[in-house]
Amino acid sequence: DTQLVLRGVHRHYGDGDTIVRVLESADLTVKGGELVALVAPSGAGKSTLLHISGLLERPQQGEVEILGVPTSHLGDRARTMLRRTTVGYVYQFHHLLPEFTALENVSIPQLIAGKSQADADKRSHELLAMLGVDSRAAHRPAELSGGEQQRVAIARAAANHPRVVLADEPTGNLDPATSDLVFEALRQLIRDEGAAALIATHNHDLARRADRIVTLRDGLVLPHTL
Ligand code: ADP
Ligand code: ADP
């Protein structure tokens, strides 16, 4: 019951003299309940790998499988459906909707997925409580600290029980204590939900707490130790 598989993934940008080869035959498997840290220098292709894993971008060659479903032959609509129902994405900048409260930000994706308002709000409160920010449920993002915003963003990403969680520098803008808290919250959610998680981070202390560390070199995903 492997959740995320990348096989022989190629991705380049541009062509001719200006070609940038980012991924060249990248392979990666992340199982349910497994948290994999992605540690690599800037420009190595971390965001590209996450975008491709989250079906936000297509590789030029290779296959991405989510829950055993190959995606290369799917059209854009089917990919969007699969992404909405299986993938939770956490960005470095929280991307919360500024005019909505924390609670609403977490409930909206559930309403879009067809849940009732009462069921969505119940789940949102549970997630916010688990992340220690339920007392902020009625506040808008601008009224929250950076760590609180990021915890709300994690609650939102987890709202629809994603099988695959992708996070791009989720603690990039946070102080060490808050980074710790946010990372642990993310880890607990992944455990509880049995999701497969790939987290790009520059924070070596956090990466060491992942189940496994990988890096990107010469367009390949390689095992890594810190
Ligand atoms: P990282 O997240 O590790 O910093 P990225 O995946 O963002 O790396 O980028 C990898 C390389 O691909 C970089 O050299 C970047 O400039 C290039 N790149 C990324 N996206 C594009 C794009 N849309 N067009 C052209 N080049 C791109
Ligand atoms: P941090 O130390 O994480 O940066 P802040 O100093 O920004 O936290 O905020 C401390 C507390 O004050 C947080 O709980 C936050 O929710 C609250 N807070 C910050 N700004 C506002 C605001 N404009 N309105 C209401 N509450 C706020």
TrEMBL record:
Keywords: ATP-binding, Cell inner membrane, Cell membrane, Membrane, Nucleotide-binding, Translocase, Transport. Pfam families: ABC_tran. PROSITE patterns: ABC_TRANSPORTER_1, ABC_TRANSPORTER_2. Transmembrane segments: none annotated. SMART domains: AAA. Signal peptide: none annotated. InterPro entries: AAA+_ATPase, ABC_transporter-like_ATP-bd, ABC_transporter-like_CS, ABC_transpr_LolD-like, MacB-like_ATP-bd, P-loop_NTPase. SUPFAM superfamilies: P-loop containing nucleoside triphosphate hydrolases. One of its GO terms (biological process) is lipoprotein localization to outer membrane. Coiled coil: none annotated. GO terms for cellular component: membrane protein complex; plasma membrane. One of its GO terms (molecular function) is ATP binding. Belongs to the ABC transporter superfamily. Macrolide exporter (TC 3.A.1.122) family. This is ABC transporter ATP-binding protein. It comes from Paradevosia tibetensis.
